[in-house]
Amino acid sequence: MSEFLQFVFLGLSVGAVYSVFATSLVGVYAATGIINFAQGSIALWAVYTVAALRTDGTLVLPIGDVSLGSVASPTAMLPAVLLGVATAAAWALIAHLVVFRPLRRAPALANVAASVGLMLFLQALVSLRFNTESLAALPILPEGTITVAGAVVNVSDLLMAGTAIAVGALLWAYFGLTTRGVATRAASEDELAARLSGYAPDRLAATVWTISGAASGLIVVLGAYTIGLDPVSYAYYVVPAMAVALVGRLASFAVASVSGLVLGSFQAVLLWANTLDWWPAWAQAGLGDAMPFVVVVVALFLLGGKIPSRGSLGELKMPAVTVPRIRPIPTIAVVAAAALAILLTADSWRFGIVTSMILSLIALSLVLLTGYLGQISLASIAFAGTAGFALSKLTVNWGVPFPFSIVLSALVATALGVVVGVPALRIRGAQLAVVTLAAAFAIQNFVFNNPALTPYEGHQISEPTLLGMNLSVRRGTELTTVAFSMTVLVVVTVMTLLVMRLMAGATGRAFLAVRSNERAAASVGINVAATKLLGFALSAFLAGVGGCLIGYSRGQLSAASFTVVVGLTMLAIAYCGGITSVSGALIAGFIGPLGVFYVFLNQTLDLGQYYQVIAAGGLLLMAITNPIGAAGANAELANKLKTRVRTARLARVAENGTTSLEMSSVKVGTHVG
Amino acid sequence: MSVESSSSLLETRRLSVRYGGVVANDDVALTVEAGEIVGLIGPNGAGKTTFVDAVTGFTRSTGEVRLAGQRIDGYSSHRRRSGGMARTWQAGELFGDLTVAQNLAVALQRPGIRALLADIITGSAPPVEAIDTALEMVGLADVADRRPSELALGQQKMVGVARALVGGTRVVLLDEPAAGLDTHESQHFGEELRRIAAAGIGVLLIDHDMSLVLDVCDRLYVLDFGKVIATGKPQQIRDDPRVVAAYLGSPDVEPSDVLDSQLTSGTTSPQKGR
């Protein structure tokens, strides 16, 4: 029993981080209606700032650094902590001023894309700017222990919990008791009314952003010694924090604060359970990481009630859609260009092209689900991964031959897609993004990274053959065979054409109807719930096919291909490419992780390590300057070109029905080539 | 004078809607026969839109809703629509991402596995004839390829009416379709309504344009504070002192004059939120 209690207390440090992140999220949501995926990344910067200051007195800035000491005499603790907290506050303020304020009237999707972009950007920047290999956190809180009911408890854990509760209480008091706080909430609901009452909504929101950044930075800085320093995990602590914030309906500071602590303790208790004899092997890893998803589902379904969504000044609509028409000549041109590119390249360049083609298929799954049906999903990569893992089992254990192996594996992903889609029947917008992210996180840690589910020799995948032809990706010293590349081209082309037919048909129209007005869709006889699930199923199938191709292209599957980061990057990139068009999916494939653009950076410019920061920074810039996505910009550009063509060749205008979409897909095709 | 028959096309019995402590619809009993135009009138906030919401499944209600004798009050909205009960919305609620013709197409081709296969194998072009017929009925055939946002509000509402009429509709509930139409358009709309009803469709019409309502309706129901306070032929309703009182809050006024002046002015003030 005392052992059990000991774990309960051990979990408090991590719980305190969840708790403060969660109350910060609630605060920012109350002030601006934004769910900030970058909350953890902002705090991450603070931790490393303090670690660097305490190691050699260097204040690391995004560009350049300032020396405030040396290895012999590093910065003292208090100034180091204050500086660290200040950097987090500064990042939060910058996020507000540069990213979220300009986007305050943009659709929920723009906010999700931007905040995911910011999260990835900061995370990448931390890895680039700090020596994350060697920096370590030094203790800040007292290291003593006390004994509670036979359990030895770290004083630091109790202090962490105390700090978390204090932060929660302060935020609650600010919003509930001060005139400024009440005005902030009012301004979030009705900006104009707040303005008329003499408040400056921007300044009120800026205050909350700064406080939330400072609070998140502080708790992580205090806990880093106990929890450990690593450039990834803090950024993703935002997932459990979002889960507990949802338990409090994104409105209750008290519930969010306490639930965060409870979740932290509960995860520690799950670790303790691993020591029990009867605890099953499959539950020994990743179960704790699956908890946020469980918490979200419980919060949404069992506790019932609705999460309030924030009003804003005349919301922008989702980016407009141009319904694709399949035209033989542009289609053949794109496919021929891709085939030519495959033949003319070799090794890593060809591999980049193959990867880009596969990624465009996964991006297409997002175009269908998010662009057409309006459901924001961050779980696509988890669907792809699930199919990849199913492929390994089906080909190695059961000897299912290509191409049936792909179809069956993608159907496994489809089933998962329907399950993950169920929450979409109750929530929408950014909250759905949170749920799908929690699901992806759970799948990643509980399924992909679970040793009990991983064979000793890894997830092997048998080489694909068709009618005696060997289609495998490697042969001898050849890194990427023509046969495999062409196989991918055929599969991706066929799937893309099928999806274009869907989009142009009754299914596409019904999806758009649901996207634009669910109530009206129901009133014309569309089963909205079934349609959403259909969208998740189709999207998961497409992503699943993509996952199988990734599997075949590696020969052996690793969880690294399907991490949450890759999933987040895919959504953000698909958004920037143009989430409502097939050409957007092609652009996304082109610039996606390990695709052609990456190879270009890596091989030609030798800047591979900057890929993530360039990609994340670029898409952040895109999201801010063009809230409805690059598709809109492309369409505009294409329209301009069209007008020019029209004036030049007035006579032929009558028969020229080329849509803006096809023009841009031709453009992309030549790029890929 | 309403004839209670078990085979009414649309019939509600003891239909009630409560929002918290507020009773928005109180034991409403109403029938619409095939080919009949029935008006539902009442002052702002009387519960007319709530009634439409309850009948079509967009708000929780108690009591019975029957379509051609069959109870449908447990059905979801989309299933009621598939069964032949359509509605329009006060605010139009068209699909902004779709063209006018596509707005009608979604009511004709419902998504599902069969539609999915059709999309892939044969391609599913919208049924042009049915769409054109419905658009011609409301005089909008020439804007089939425009987006709703390019149309005037009155036209948008007419698209909504056309959308409600395609796909095997047997009874249609029109929530202020004429708001936004000028006098001439409103008269024309009245003629169209008669033609729709003559085709055997039951029509429930809510509108503030009293000249339209009194002109085209076979029967009227008057709703006040969620209750039916009067029912009968238009002429009877015009002379009913209870109706006048409901509209003006005072029984001491000469009924016909007031109704004529107040009701024919075509008040289009917005109703209480749903």
UniProtKB/TrEMBL annotation, chain A:
Q: Give one Pfam hit by family name.
A: BPD_transp_2
Q: Which CDD domains match?
A: TM_PBP1_LivH_like (cd06582), TM_PBP1_LivM_like (cd06581)
Q: Which keywords does this chain's UniProt record carry?
A: Amino-acid transport, Cell membrane, Membrane, Transmembrane, Transmembrane helix, Transport
Tell me the superkingdom of the source.
Answer: Bacteria
**Which GO BP terms apply?**
amino acid transport
The Swiss-Prot or TrEMBL record annotates one GO molecular function as: branched-chain amino acid transmembrane transporter activity
- State any GO CC term: plasma membrane
Q: What is its main location?
A: membrane
Protein name, entry field: ABC transporter permease
| Sequence similarity | Belongs to the binding-protein-dependent transport system permease family. LivHM subfamily.
User: What membrane topology does the annotation report for this chain?
Assistant: Multi-pass membrane protein
Q: Where are the transmembrane segments?
A: 6-30, 42-64, 76-99, 106-126, 146-175, 204-228, 258-275, 281-305, 326-345, 351-369, 402-422, 429-448, 479-500, 533-552, 558-577, 584-601, 613-635
What does UniProt give as the signal peptide span?
Answer: none
List the subcellular locations.
Answer: Cell membrane
Automatic annotation (TrEMBL), chain B:
Q: Which organism is it from?
A: Aeromicrobium ginsengisoli
- What's the name of the protein? ABC transporter ATP-binding protein
Q: Where does the record place the region Disordered? A: 255-274
Q: Where is the composition biased (Polar residues)?
A: 259-274
Membrane-spanning ranges: none
- Which is an annotated GO molecular function term of this record? L-phenylalanine transmembrane transporter activity
The UniProt entry's GO biological process terms, in alphabetical order, are: D-alanine transmembrane transport; L-alanine transport; L-isoleucine import across plasma membrane; L-valine import across plasma membrane
Annotated Pfam families: ABC_tran, BCA_ABC_TP_C
Where is it found, in Gene Ontology cellular component terms?
Answer: plasma membrane
